[in-house]
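Retro notes (design track)

What went well: tokenization of the new backbones is finally stable.
What didn't: we kept losing track of which sequence belonged to which structure.
Fix going forward: every design gets posted as structure first, then sequence, in one message. First example under the new rule, 572 residues:
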């Protein structure tokens, strides 16, 4: 059997299932659960009927090993099986049962290579060994087809010729239309939808078709960041999308590398190449596969911190890893060591940096975050401070943390920052983003300032106090906590507004949604705007500060657990 016959078999299977399924649409008995499938999910009668039709068709035309969600793995046909067939008889069963026109049959075929033509041969194969994929929307009649090294095509209903398809060329997320897997949405995905990072979100309920929509450019991307994507769901569309120029990985940007096994599960991000890295940055660890170049920032007022920097330099030298030093740190070390024997250079351009190693306390981490700005550079924070609540690793863990990054075996925790705009008669001034908090505080000790607070344009209250804090979740354990604010988990999508020593007894901390616009107007006197401990601007009566969630995030290489760090607050 040559490849033309392989295509012929796939078409026969698709057409047989289509013919057998159509009369079942709308029949009450179709949705009866009749068993639990080999993949552990409930099987409806329509699934069993469709699968039996598909297997019988394959058996009539060839000898093969079939992988399908209901039967698991089965050899069909006479003689040693030469082909592997991955079948999803109905992708989008709910849609089919409710006559929603987005349900499909999906099939992928590959040749069983090696000495063994049976199950032994299949065990060493992966999704990369599949050569042909066909997905047909049973409701509308359109057929998608892909063949390794031959391209991807669509045959629409009533058309006579196959048309070549390619992924979209959309480059910016704000212009993108993204399909999302509907079940078990994570907090990360829900925030992605709520934050409107993209132009449109679409949920169709048929993974195979949604991936084909990406292949033809009707969707710019499709994501499922849970570890729930099944082999049978995507095998046919995987071949089609790859051949249309799409990029398909797990949420961390790693190849799927799915074995041909019914139990395989993966997260999934697929899109064009321009959008893919941006989506990995939102949902996973896009740095896991990136060539590593560290930048080192350290506090310079403690001998033990400087000694640790030199130990880190020696370690990076022994591992052959490139690194850069903050200029002030470099100049101090010149007088302490023979720096000429090291390969290090002064950090001039952040574009050279993949990861920033920060040795110090919370102040050093905030300084590093300020330096990074809107650049997407993860921080490896080593505790050499007093409290060190922003740090993720102890000094004894520094080499472990470096190895984790070098090996790509680590998680990234994304932290919300807030942007701050000052509005005056002269115009608007954008201040640096805050990782911890924006503080409006009196210029004169023991003098109160009058603030008017608005949230999303609605007046909340007039506050008479020594100052007012708008804190991120990260900053909720800093100044905000000292002023009586609540502790928020870093992953929460919220801000805390905390009056400092308010005049009114009922002026209490307020937690607001992270997508809120917070406007604070100086009603009387003047005040200072302080971003993460740095004085940025003097405010006069009548001037306003507008605070929103920043478009940029801070990224931390994850080490300690959040609640274990809380214990430090009680002992510091």
């Amino acid at each position: 059997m040559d490849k033309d016959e392989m295509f012929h078999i796939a078409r026969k299977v698709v057409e047989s299932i289509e013919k057998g399924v159509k009369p079942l649409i709308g029949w009450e008995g179709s949705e009866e659960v009749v068993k639990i499938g080999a993949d552990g999910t409930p099987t409806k009668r329509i699934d069993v009927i469709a699968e039996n039709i598909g297997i019988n068709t394959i058996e009539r035309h060839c000898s093969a090993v079939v992988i399908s969600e209901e039967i698991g793995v089965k050899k069909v046909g006479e003689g040693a099986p030469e082909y592997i067939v991955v079948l999803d008889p109905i992708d989008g069963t709910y849609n089919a049962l409710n006559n929603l026109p987005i349900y499909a049959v999906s099939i992928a075929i590959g040749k069983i290579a090696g000495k063994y033509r049976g199950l032994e041969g299949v065990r060493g194969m992966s999704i990369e060994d599949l050569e042909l994929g066909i997905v047909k929307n049973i409701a509308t009649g359109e057929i998608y087809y892909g063949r390794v090294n031959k391209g991807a095509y669509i045959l629409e209903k009533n058309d006579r010729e196959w048309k070549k398809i390619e992924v979209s060329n959309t480059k910016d997320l704000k212009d993108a239309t993204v399909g999302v897997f509907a079940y078990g949405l994570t907090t990360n995905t829900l925030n992605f939808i709520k934050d409107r990072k993209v132009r449109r979100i679409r949920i169709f309920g048929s993974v195979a078709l949604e991936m084909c929509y990406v292949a033809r450019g009707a969707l710019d991307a499709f994501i499922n960041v849970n570890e729930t994507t099944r082999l049978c769901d995507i095998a046919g569309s995987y071949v089609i999308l790859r051949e249309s120029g799409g990029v398909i990985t797990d949420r961390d940007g790693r190849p799927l590398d799915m074995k041909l096994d019914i139990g395989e599960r993966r997260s999934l991000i697929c899109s064009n190449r321009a959008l893919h890295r941006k989506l990995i940055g939102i949902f996973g660890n896009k740095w896991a596969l990136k060539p590593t170049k560290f930048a080192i920032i350290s506090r310079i007022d403690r001998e033990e911190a400087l000694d640790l920097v030199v130990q880190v330099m020696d370690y990076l030298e022994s591992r052959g890893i490139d690194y850069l030093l903050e200029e002030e740190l470099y100049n101090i070390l010149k007088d302490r060591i023979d720096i000429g024997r090291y390969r290090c250079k002064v950090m001039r351009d952040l574009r050279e940096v993949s990861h920033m190693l920060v040795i110090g306390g919370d102040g050093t981490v905030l300084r590093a975050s300020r330096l990074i700005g809107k650049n997407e550079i993860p921080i490896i924070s080593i505790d050499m401070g007093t409290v060190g609540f922003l740090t993720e690793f102890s000094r004894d863990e520094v080499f472990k943390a470096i190895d984790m990054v070098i090996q790509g075996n680590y998680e990234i925790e994304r932290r919300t920052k807030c942007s701050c705009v000052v509005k005056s008669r002269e115009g608007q001034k954008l201040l640096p983003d805050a990782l911890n908090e924006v503080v409006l505080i009196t210029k004169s000790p023991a003098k109160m300032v009058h603030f008017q607070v608005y949230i999303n344009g609605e007046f909340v209250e007039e506050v008479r106090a020594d100052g007012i804090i708008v804190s991120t979740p990260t900053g909720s354990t800093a100044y905000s906590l000292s002023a009586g604010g609540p502790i928020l988990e870093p992953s929460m999508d919220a801000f805390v507004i905390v009056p400092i020593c308010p005049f009114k007894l009922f002026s209490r901390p307020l937690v607001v949604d992270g997508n809120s616009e917070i406007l604070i107007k100086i009603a009387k006197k003047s005040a200072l705007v302080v971003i993460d401990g740095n004085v940025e601007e003097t405010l006069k009566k009548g001037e306003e500060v507008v605070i929103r969630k920043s478009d940029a995030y801070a990224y931390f290489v994850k080490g300690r657990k959040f609640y274990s760090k809380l214990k430090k607050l009680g002992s510091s």
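Added context from the reviewer: The domain at 293-410 is CATH 3.40.50.10330 (Rossmann fold).
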